Amino acid sequence: MQSPASPLLLRDVPLWPNGKGSAVALAFDLDGPTGDAMLDGSLRQNPRYFSEGAYGPFRALPRLLDLLAQHALPATFFIPTWVVENWTEACTRILREGHEVAYHGHYHEYFRDLTPEAQLQVMERSRAVFQSRLGVTPQGFRTPSGDWTAETPALLRDFGVRYSSSMRGEDRPYVHPAPVGVTPLVELPARWDMDDYTALAYFEDPVFPEGQDRISDYRTVRANWIAEFEGYHAEGLFWTTILHPKVSAKPARLAILDGLFTAIRRHDSVWTTTLAEVAGWTLQQATKEQP
Ligand SMILES: [Zn+2]
User: Fold this and answer.
1) Is 148:111 a contact under the CB 8 Å cutoff?
2) Ligand 1 centre distance from Cα of residue 84 (Å)
3) Domain edges within the chain
4) Beta-sheet pairing, 186-187 with 163-164
5) Which of 1, 52, 67, 160: CA 20 to 30 A from 9?
6) Which residue from 17, 7, 10 is spatially nearest to 281, judged by alpha carbons?
7) Does residue 265 carry a pLDDT above 90?
8) Pairing, β 75-79 against β 22-29
9) Residue 11 has pLDDT above 70, yes or no
10) Dihedral through CA 272, CA 250, CA 194, CA 173, nearest 10?
C-alpha cells in the first residue's frame, strides 16, 4: 500500500493545464460477465449470471457511448480482455469515438491472489489481445476488485504501464516510488464513493449486496454523485469514477449519468479528459518539480 504522504506527492493543490481549476477523467469498468464466477468455473452452470454481465458490453455500452457523445465528454474504459475478445466490435467503437481503453485483467483476476509471475502472465496475455484485436497498447491499469500485492506497482512500471487507477488514499495524482532515473508509475486514485455498486448493484446467486434489499433512490444517487464532483472541483482536485455500464447505463439510470455529465459541463474551468492525459500531465509536472 502506498502512503498518501509519499515524498513524491505533488503540490497541495495540483496545477492543471491551461489554467483549469480541476480535472475530471470519467472511467468505466466494462467487466461484462468476467469475475468470480468465470474464475471458479461456476459460470457454466449459471447462464443467468452470465447474461446479467453480458448486458454491459451488449446493451448498456452503446447507450452510454451515445450519452458521452451528446455531452462531448471523453472517458477511459478498463476492460478485461476476455470481453475484448468476445465483443470486439463494441470495443472498437469505444476507440473510434475518441475514448481510451486500459488494462483490467483478462478474466478480471484478483491481482492480490496472484504471484508476480502470474500477474505478469495476465498482463502479457492482455497486451497481446489489445494489440491483435484493437491495434492498441494501453497505457493504464486498474486492478480488478481493488487490490494488489507489494510487487505489483514495480511490475506494472517495468512492463511499460504508465499509470494505475487502483489505490484509494488520495484525491490528487501522485507517483509511486521508483529508482532514480526510472520513470515512475503514476497513481490516479479512485474512490468507492464513486463506485456504482455501492448504490445500484443488485445481483442474485452470488448475491450482491449481502442481505439484499437495497437499491438507492435514483434522485438521491444523482444528487450524491453531483455533490461528489462539485466537492472535488471546489478544492481543485482530481476526480475519477468506478462506474460499470452493466450497473449504471440502464435505461432509467441513464438520467443519473445525464445529470452528472450536465453538472460537469456547467463548469468551463473543469479539465475534462482521459486518465492517460492526466498521467502524462502528472509525469511532466513531477519531472519539473523534483529537486
Ligand atoms: Zn472490474
Assistant:
1) yes
2) 14
3) 28-289
4) parallel
5) 160
6) 17
7) yes
8) parallel
9) yes
10) -30
Question: Model-level pTM?
Answer: 0.94
Q: Which helix (H) or strand (E) element contains residue 187?
A: strand 186-187
CA distance 178 to 184: 5
CA–centroid distance, residue 268 to ligand 1 (Å):
31
Q: If you average pLDDT over residues 126-155, what whole number do you get?
A: 96
Give the Å distance between the CA of 145 and the centre of ligand 1: 6
DSSP character at residue 172: S
Residue 77's Cβ-count burial label (10 Å; 0-12, 13-18, 19+) is buried
How confident is the model over 15-55, as pLDDT tens digits?
899 999 999 999 999 999 998 888 888 888 888 888 889 99
Task: Please tell me the distance between residue 215's alpha carbon and the centre of ligand 1 in angstroms.
Answer: 20
Give 34 Cα–ligand 1 centroid separation in angstroms.
Answer: 8
Cα of 123 from ligand 1 centre, angstroms: 15
- Is 90 exceeded by the pLDDT of residue 13? no
Residue 287 Cα to ligand 1 middle (Å): 31
The number of residues making up the chain comes to 291
Which residues fall within 8 angstroms of residue 135, CB to CB, at 6 or more apart? none
Residue 38 grid coordinates: 468465470
CATH superfamily, domain 28-289, is: Glycoside hydrolase/deacetylase (3.20.20.370)
Name the grid cell of 156.
Answer: 506494472
Ligand 1 center to 202 CA (angstroms): 15
What b/e sequence results for 89-101 when a residue is b if at least 16 CB atoms lie within 10 Å of its CB, and e otherwise? ebbeebeeeebbb
pLDDT, average across residues 224-253: 97
What is the mean pLDDT of the segment spanning 225-241? 97
Secondary structure (3-state) at 188: coil
**Secondary-structure percent of the chain, ordered helix, strand, coil, rounded to 5:** 50, 10, 40
